[in-house]
Design a protein that fits this description.
- With 166 residues, this protein is mainly alpha-helical.
- The protein has a domain of 105 residues: Helix Hairpins (Orthogonal Bundle).
- Helix content is 55%, strand content 0%.
- The longest helix is centred in the middle third of the chain and has 31 residues.
- It starts with a helix and ends with a helix.
- One of its GO terms (molecular function) is oxidoreductase activity.
- Belongs to the CPA3 antiporters (TC 2.A.63) subunit C family.
- Its main location: membrane.
- It is found in: Cell membrane.
Length: 166
């Protein structure tokens, strides 16, 4: 199967530009980046469909599967177009709402927001009676640093009761 080098390069450029634009704080650039990335993915799916020119069912002469083109990638492209349209409409509504509320379409980190987030993480750590240096305690009494007084959900007893030497 030979693929068109121009389509491969175009797909790569679309995806690279789309990812670059999605990393910006401007919502309009994020939307344009999402559209470019969606079109790049559509080209990728089209390139996996097989050689161009084959009919989707049969060519009428060769009734074997070698004379057919796989119709699944075409259906996937149509589905991707619909999903891209829906997400684009949602993003446009977010951009419009952001513009109406704050007269700006960029997302900025404000110092007050960052300070509040840090205070909240400290409050959560104090409530859990853990520090950031401790490991995760998702395994209850089998954890390296179990939370004192936590409910033992596995009902198999503590490691001392089971006779584990770990």
């Amino acid at each position: 199967m030979s693929t068109s080098l121009i389509l491969l390069i175009t797909m790569g450029v679309l995806m690279a530009c789309g990812v670059y634009l999605m990393l910006d704080r401007s919502l309009t650039r994020v939307l344009i980046g999402f559209l470019l990335l969606g079109n790049g993915v559509n080209l990728l799916i089209m390139l996996t469909a097989g050689p161009p020119g084959n009919p989707p069912i049969t060519d009428g002469v060769n009734l074997s599967t070698s004379g057919m083109s796989d119709p699944l990638p075409h259906a996937l492209i149509l589905t991707a177009i619909v999903i891209t349209f829906g997400i684009s409409a949602f993003m446009l509504a977010l951009i419009y709402r952001s513009w109406r509320l704050v007269r700006a379409e960029t997302i900025d980190d404000q110092g007050e927001d960052l300070a509040e987030a840090q205070e909240q993480s400290l409050r959560l750590a104090e409530e859990a009676q853990t520090s950031e240096s401790q490991d995760d305690t998702e395994f209850g009494d089998e954890a390296d640093h179990p939370v004192p007084g936590a409910v033992d959900l596995d009902d198999d007893g503590t490691p001392e009761e089971r006779g584990d030497s770990t």
